[in-house]
Every structure is written in structure tokens, then in C-alpha cells.
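thread: overnight batch results

M.L. [08:02]
morning all. the overnight job finished for the chain we discussed friday. pasting input first so we're all looking at the same thing
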Amino acid sequence: QVQLVESGGGLVQTGGSLRLSCAASGSISSVNVMGWYRQAPGKQRELVATITGGTVTTYADSVKGRFTISRDNAKNTVYLQMNSLKPDDTAVYYCNVAWRYGLYNYWGQGTQVTVSS
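M.L. [08:03]
and the structure it wrote out:
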């Protein structure tokens, strides 16, 4: 059983910052990829950023230079620092952990991020 608990969402004005956290617990492989995805109303869920255990990162083009993903392997926790937020960043943000090429794939419950103009 794997659980992901997210925190840190909320309401912020354009140009503001938020930091999301996601703590993973349970039977998690030490070799995994953790990431953040988001889903806006009426849109498909999309990748925001991922990070491997070795801290190799990937980002969606829309957030490059504004968002930073990081992780604490000892705590099985992943973070997403979001700066210069825009209304288009408004979405439910989901934490994800996966290993064995996605054979094992778990999601958090989601946290709402709302950016007002």
C-alpha cells in the first residue's frame, strides 16, 4: 500500500509563489521517479515536472524557469516551488510516484492551486 499526501495549495495573485509538498509512504521502490501533474477544468491531466532519485529533472515548457522540483530521498518527499505564477497555472496539482517503467504508478488526492488575475 502506497500513500501520497500533498499539501501547500491555495489561492495566490498573479506573480506570486507557492510551494507544494508531497510525502510518500508505504512499500516504495528505492528506484523511482516522483513528479507533479496538473489538470485544469475541461482539460486533460498534463505533466508539470518529474525528478528521479538521482535528481535528474524534466519540466513542461510552460513552467521552465518558473517552477523547480526537488526531493528529499530520506523522507520520500517531493516538492514543487512555483514562482511567477500565472492564471493559466490554475489547476488541481497531483503528486505521482512510479517505478518499473510505470508498472507501479501511484497518485495523490490532488491539491488546488488558484492564481487570480
